[in-house]
Inverse folding.
């Protein structure tokens, strides 16, 4: 082992991809790395805190591994520091040998149909952030006097949204759902939730446990429209992976179930696309106009949805668009507009010609797109870390002009350290204990409250 000081790494984005990369880099003996993990929120964990559904606490226990990483003597957290606002890409490159972007894909994809922005129509991203207490979305107005809701999309986020709408107040009260959302969801008058899938049961992007949960709702009966496979899908079934084949079984089992008169019906409707959201005189959504689809084979053999010309209206006073996410560009960092990702090859940021940008790397959703589960990011980050190690060995890392990171951080007046986050965490968990037995925390959901909670731990943290 050499005596040279550790190579400095800035990781931007304290979600799973960022934490896995931090842990992997800190585990390397030669060369040694020191990691500063930045996030625009005062709180760490990214989508584990503000995306994973609150009634899935087991999934959130992955933060224990991230907390172990935070204990490393060469790890620091700087929350409430936004890239592009509080700190620039150039500043990071002036101070670090490696800048690794793990910023996720924060923007909802749009349907591009008339009426999409009517009141009562929300991107799932916003609704999920709202019930999870994200401080940017605590003021969202979700009108749950609605009787009918449509969730567009056949992925796990759509399932999360549909399930959260159907949970009973007693099921919500024991979770870390934000208090404002528990109040609104508990008073909900929802009777029907339609999950709208443009293709058939075989093409649905659900995973099996999430789909199975929908059949066990305390307050919801499950119903299916379009469970039978079309001819092309019936042929494709034999070649499909295990998850998709099992999805088809589960969906067909749901289709055969008798109703049990629960107060809410959750209906999976396959082979239908929204073509317009229809509004009432007040500009509030009242229905979704849909077109039935059939499955067609593309030239590359993949199976796509194609409209049949048969239209219908589904009454809905609430609509959630859950058709995937896309990334937001970072000023100065090459961006692939078509894919909505930072341009990269295997984790090395590249320009349009494929030439690597010295010292810049990506991991997680902003590298590969919004796919996979939390654990998928472990391998993804390891692949990027391997590229960093190759470049370190070849002398191809960035050569920063300054090591005075403290001076740079001093300009970020609100920066929250790990101790600051622990102060927030202590307040939230104590409030959870005082609230309902078993409730893990009551989240602070306002920027000012988060800042106030972290305040005492703010002053000049040096490397521990
Ligand atoms: P997703 O899995 O990619 O699903 C997006 C869905 O939107 C697909 O069914 C897609 O249909 C549909 N879609 C896309 N464009 C559409 C359009 N114009 N009109 C109608 N439908 C359209 O995305 P996601 O649900 O946002 O989830 C993101 C990732 O997070 C996934 O990997 C998911 O598994 C993961 N996640 C996991 C959990 C969990 O493990 N519990 C929870 C939440 C999220 P096509 O297939 O036809 O394109």
């Amino acid at each position: 082992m050499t005596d040279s000081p550790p190579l400095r790494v800035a990781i931007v984005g304290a979600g799973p991809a960022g934490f896995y990369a931090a842990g992997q880099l800190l585990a390397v003996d030669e060369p040694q790395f020191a990691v500063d993990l930045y996030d625009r929120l005062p709180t760490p964990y990214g989508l584990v805190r503000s995306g994973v559904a609150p009634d899935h606490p087991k999934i959130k226990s992955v933060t224990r591994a991230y907390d172990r990483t935070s204990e490393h003597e060469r790890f620091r957290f700087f929350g409430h520091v936004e890239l592009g606002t509080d700190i620039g890409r150039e500043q990071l490159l002036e101070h670090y040998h490696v800048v690794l972007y793990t910023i996720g894909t924060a923007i909802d994809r749009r349907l591009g149909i008339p009426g999409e922005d009517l009141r009562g129509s929300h991107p799932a991203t916003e609704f999920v952030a709202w019930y999870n207490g994200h401080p940017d979305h605590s003021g969202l107005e979700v009108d749950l006097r609605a009787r009918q809701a449509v969730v567009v999309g056949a992925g796990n986020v759509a399932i999360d949204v549909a399930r959260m709408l159907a949970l009973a107040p007693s099921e919500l009260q024991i979770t870390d759902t934000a208090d404002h959302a528990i109040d609104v969801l508990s008073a909900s008058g929802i009777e029907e939730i339609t999950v709208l899938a443009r293709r058939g049961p075989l093409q649905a992007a659900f995973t099996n446990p999430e789909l199975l949960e929908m059949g066990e709702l305390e307050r919801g009966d499950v119903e299916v429209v379009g469970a039978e496979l079309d001819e092309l899908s019936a042929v494709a079934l034999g070649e499909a992976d295990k998850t998709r084949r099992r999805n088809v079984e589960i969906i067909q089992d749901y289709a055969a179930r008798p109703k049990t008169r629960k107060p809410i019906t959750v209906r999976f409707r396959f082979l239908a696309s929204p073509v317009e959201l229809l509004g009432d005189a007040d500009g509030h959504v009242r229905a979704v106009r849909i077109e039935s689809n059939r499955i067609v084979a593309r030239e590359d053999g993949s199976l796509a949805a194609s409209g049949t010309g048969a239209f219908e209206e589904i009454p809905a006073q609430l609509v959630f668009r859950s058709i995937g996410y896309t990334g937001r560009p970072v000023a100065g960092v090459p961006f692939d507009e078509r894919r909505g990702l930072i341009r990269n090859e295997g984790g090395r940021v590249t320009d349009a010609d494929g030439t690597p940008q010295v010292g810049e790397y990506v991991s997680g959703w902003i590298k590969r797109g919004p796919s996979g589960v939390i654990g998928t990011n472990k391998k993804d980050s390891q692949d990027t870390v391997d590229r960093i190690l190759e470049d370190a060995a070849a002398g191809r890392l960035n050569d920063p002009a300054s090591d005075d990171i403290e001076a740079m951080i001093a300009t970020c007046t609100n920066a929250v350290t790990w101790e600051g986050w622990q102060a927030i965490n202590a307040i939230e968990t104590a409030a959870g204990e005082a609230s309902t037995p078993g409730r893990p925390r009551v989240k602070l959901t306002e920027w000012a409250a988060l800042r106030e909670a972290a305040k005492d731990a703010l002053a000049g943290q040096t490397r521990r």
In short: Residues 111, 152-158, 160, 197-199, 203, 205, 207, 210, 273, 322-325, 370-373 surround NAP (CB under 6 Å).
